[in-house]
Prior knowledge:
This is Myeloid-derived growth factor. By secondary structure, the chain is mainly beta.
Amino acid sequence: MYVHAYYRTYGERPVSKMASSSTMGFGSSPFLIVSLICVLTLELASAKERTKTVEFDVKPGGVVHTFTKKIKKYECSFTYASQGGTNEQWQMSVGLSEDESHFSCSVWRPQGKSYLFFTQFKAEIKGAKIEYARAYSQAGVGGHSDVALKEEEYTVGDHTVTQKDGKFHAELSKLTIIGQTRHDEL
Length: 186
């Protein structure tokens, strides 16, 4: 890096001087660059260990299926039976907060609306107690908003979200759960 300085002797003329690392603050130390790369790589790896998203097929036919994903000791399972149509591609994301105080699980159809008729569903988390849960008949994609199921269609327990027999209208496109992993004393 060059710094231009102007001197007034026999008129103004630029004089180029090489800037030293002491004048610029830290310079281009190879150790500093390598250290910065290592820190950023560790942060990225740590973030990847805290979230996972995987695809799976939701299969019709009335048979009960279960799909499970885990991060560390925390686990999310989605159990269902559905009818009509053909396989649909769905996704499950599990996440763990940086301080590991919250575990989240989302299951959804990326295309937004499922055309399958769900005869039953249950989402369960292990290692955490549910603080928030919501089920949707349509996932918000392509400018559309999420459409929540009526609260009377499903029940939320400490570790599960399940359809209510006789109340659930067989439409499901998304489930979201957030659970607290540990109890903090006041």
